[in-house]
TrEMBL record:
E.C. designation(s): 2.3.1.31
InterPro entries per UniProt: AB_hydrolase_1, AB_hydrolase_fold, HAT_MetX-like
PANTHER family cross-referenced by the UniProt entry: HOMOSERINE O-ACETYLTRANSFERASE (PTHR32268)
Protein name: Homoserine O-acetyltransferase
A biological-process GO annotation: methionine biosynthetic process
Amino acid sequence: MAFLMQNDTRFGLDKKTQLPGPVQLDSGVAFAPVDFAYETYGTLNADKSNAILICHALTGDQYVASNHPVTGKAGWWTRMVGPGKPIDPARHCIISINVLGSCMGSSGPASIDPVTGAPYAMGFPVITIADMVRAQALLLNHLGIETLEAVVGGSMGGMQALSWAALYPERVRSAVIIASTARHSAQNIAFHEVGRQAIMADPSWNNGAYYGHEAPAAGLAVARMAAHITYLSEAGLTEKFGRRLQNRDAKSFGFDADFQVESYLRHQGLSFVDRFDANSYLYITRAMDYFDLAEPHDGVLAKAFSGTKTRFCLISFDSDWLYPTAESRRIVHALNAAGAAASFVELSSPFGHDAFLLEAPEMNRIVDGFLRAGESR
């Protein structure tokens, strides 16, 4: 059993390990062995009470607060995680794990199947959000962490945080759920299906068997473009781009990127294919679509939290139409019905769903206050 007890002061330790497993998946498959790629920040204290697990969103990864090795860009949540930030390595032992099914080092479709010696591709088992959490629990067991001070996540990360509280309530003292939901709506599923069809319509997809050959970059780029629209808001797009043309002097009257917003979306799509795997996109979006925390509890969400002692903090944004405030309210009502300790706030932002990744001082103050209140208990 490994312990994160070393007095290593480097900020952001990139780690990989393979565990024999298995992880028992919702599909009935006992998946093994299991590869994990993860980062740690800070040091686990003597009584192992200061561990915080940060769960990433669909296209995120373990590089929450350190430079991404492919893009060279700063971590995706440096506004929340780091020295002097609400989640501070001086106070917390922070762990961020690349989810099962992803493509940044944890087991996924691009990983090598030990039976065949080739990438799993579409032979990788179907996964769910709960499966991702079970895999994370396996790694935390290996690291000697029995109880989490908090599990924190936005978007799909919030789904994982909710699942942690439902599956392992005795292991989670606090949960922070930001811009998330307890189930995917028909609209959410529909947008994901457009992206999946774009990938599968790309001739290079080849039924998922494209490893070692040309990847379905065009399809994946379109999928990213379609999804990225849902992360924004009309007000944010209007403020940032309006109907401004790339060339203010003339229209091309063709299908080049005349409008600035077109150029922006194309850039998002093209840059995405450099760091993400198309098959992983298929698997993870499907896992999100399957997500319905109430389903295993007779459709009653409150039953998922029955008897929980976990403290909950939920944050939504008024311009988020992907996971609107009504979704967070539904979770809060269920927590109240279960007798759980829950706080909730809706914040105002013009930036839509992506607001949780951007500069949001109010969100930081709320998360900081909530975590500090838990530390004093």
